[in-house]
Amino acid sequence: MRRLVTIAVAGSAGLALLVAPAGADSRPPLKPADLEAAIAGLPDAEASGALLQVRGRDGEWQGTSGVANVHTGQKVPVNGRFRIGSMTKTFTATAALQLVAKRKLDPRRTVQSYAPDLLPAGYPPITIDHLLTYTSGLPGMDIDHKDPVWFLRHRFDTWTPRQLFDLAFHREDGTVKEMLFHPGSAQKYGNIDYLVLGAVIEEVTGRPYGDAIRDGVIRPLHLSATSVPGTDTRIRGPHARGYEEHDGTYTDITAANPTYQWAAAEMISNAPDLDRFLTALLSGKLLPRAQTALLFRIPDVKVHNSDQDAYLGHGIARLPVGDIVFWGKTGDRPGYNSGMAATRDLGRRVVFSVNTLHMGGSEQPVVSQKIIAAVSGLA
């Protein structure tokens, strides 16, 4: 494949960085050269393209690198849409907290009280708050859905929530899996809590969980590039394509049925929409004061099977990087690794998407790591 590199930046006169007044805060300054370097050099062996957007009073910058199509060399669109993966959870949490504010959902009540037939009968009481903070102890699916062989075989399958719950709570012989830990005693990140939360939202509203997101977030904020696709396998609108590379062959994996991820990781958006959403969420425009405060409330427990303190609040995570504490969420789907984060005062906000060439893995792609370092002043 011919090696191509493109950098597109906001404005008409080179790198557009609006520098904050001296002494505005103690955060390390944003450096345009570091931001450019973080996404430069694509395509490479790990990623075909990337986009980065930085906003806030600390400075503004946006750029892209690499290609949206490995065959045509088309540039990555700076406002292109992408699969946001687990950033969907922040939208789902927001919809649930809006129902809490309307007194249609009580975080202290149990899943069993809202949906008696959803969990196995022998499971202990699990509250809505446990779901929101990943402290339920529920077992998840054993399938590695980011394994290339499994993904390519099943990426167009349609899954129902009931099928997902059967996979999560039962072994192949039909016996019920044990809980991972007692509810509320530890934190373990995964999809299952938010899959169950999506089902509870549907029980409470009598409508698809996506309608709560459309009515409570997408339409009020006019998020024109954001969607809850359901069974639609396409990314509609401008976007960079996702690939899985093996021995020099690029398999286009852009199209996929997202129902296996459902309320935990199915959504599509772009950088401007995600910045608008996160800004509105953290500033209290989407939730009343009490529910906005919950976003930042982290359970006083440890991460399951570790000595690490819990770091996930109600839909967002506390993400300290160097001298800066961000609040936000990352996401990962085959072909797409992404993130959104902001300082509590919204003075520095970042959204990025990297088009990975190898799905799975336990660490973020190097490009994503470079982006985080550059935005945090550590490059």
Automatic annotation (TrEMBL):
Its EC number is 3.-.-.-. Keywords: Hydrolase, Signal. InterPro entries: AmpC-like, Beta-lactam-related, Beta-lactam/transpept-like. Residues 1-24 form the signal peptide. Residues 38-360 form the Beta-lactamase-related domain. One of its GO terms (molecular function) is hydrolase activity. Pfam families: Beta-lactamase. This is Serine hydrolase domain-containing protein.
